């Protein structure tokens, strides 16, 4: 089993404008007999899933998302060597089958830049590419970047791919790690906190055959 999640740590990179991540001791073992950590973080911290409610008024919240939507066979599409701010079009997706699994992972190689300024200039998924994947059966779009849409350093951006995927009642997983050497077909599990909200941090794993 391989972990595809970034650890949640104080001061880690978050999407511009999101709450900072801060983990502080609330109880201490020596003093209180048990260790408890107080958490301050946004629902889209680290490796996380976006529920439809993230960008769609009246959309489903995370507590309404079934775990079986986030586990199963996945297609991994590798698109290495992309330039800053590149857009992944239909051609970059390569030869797709007529039907793709419900979960699609797009590996840009940009996970290696998570935590740095360069992460903000990540490649983005083009709307037509996302639409084609939806038409062929995708329900969960997973990326190794801060967003499938372009990220603006000021936190001001349009979210056309979010609107497309979440508007179709699908899900988006962002900030996957360690996906660059995965085979094109894997079994994946993405396990979010069951928050009654717009998204949640996840533990994402690939299962061994």
From TrEMBL:
A Pfam family hit: Cyclase
EC number assigned by the record: 3.5.-.-
Top-level lineage group: Bacteria
Keyword Hydrolase attached: yes
Enzymatic class: hydrolase
Alphabetical list of InterPro entries matching this protein: KFase/CYL (IPR007325), KFase_sf (IPR037175)
Keywords, alphabetical: Hydrolase
GO molecular function: hydrolase activity
UniProt entry tagged with the keyword Hydrolase: yes
UniProt cross-references to PANTHER family, sorted A to Z: CYCLASE-LIKE PROTEIN 2
Protein's UniProt name: Cyclase family protein
The organism of origin for this protein: Lysobacter korlensis
């Amino acid at each position: 089993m391989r972990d595809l999640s970034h650890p949640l740590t104080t001061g880690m990179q978050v999407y511009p404008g999101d709450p900072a991540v801060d983990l502080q001791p609330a109880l201490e073992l020596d003093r209180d007999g048990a260790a408890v950590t107080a958490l301050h973080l946004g629902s889209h911290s680290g490796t996380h899933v976006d529920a439809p409610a993230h960008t769609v008024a009246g959309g489903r919240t995370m507590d309404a998302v079934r775990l079986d939507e986030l586990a199963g066979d996945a297609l991994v599409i590798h698109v290495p060597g992309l330039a800053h701010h590149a857009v992944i079009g239909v051609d970059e997706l390569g030869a797709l089958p007529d039907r793709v699994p419900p979960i699609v992972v797009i590996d840009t190689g940009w996970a290696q830049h998570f935590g740095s300024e360069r992460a903000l200039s990540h490649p983005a998924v083009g709307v037509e590419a996302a639409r084609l994947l939806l038409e062929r059966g995708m329900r969960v779009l997973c990326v190794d970047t801060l967003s499938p849409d372009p990220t603006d350093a000021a936190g001001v951006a349009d979210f056309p791919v979010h609107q497309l995927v979440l508007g179709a009642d699908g899900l988006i997983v962002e900030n996957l790690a360690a996906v660059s050497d995965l085979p094109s077909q894997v079994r994946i599990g993405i396990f979010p906190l069951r928050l009654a909200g717009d998204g949640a941090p996840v533990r994402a794993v690939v299962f061994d055959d």
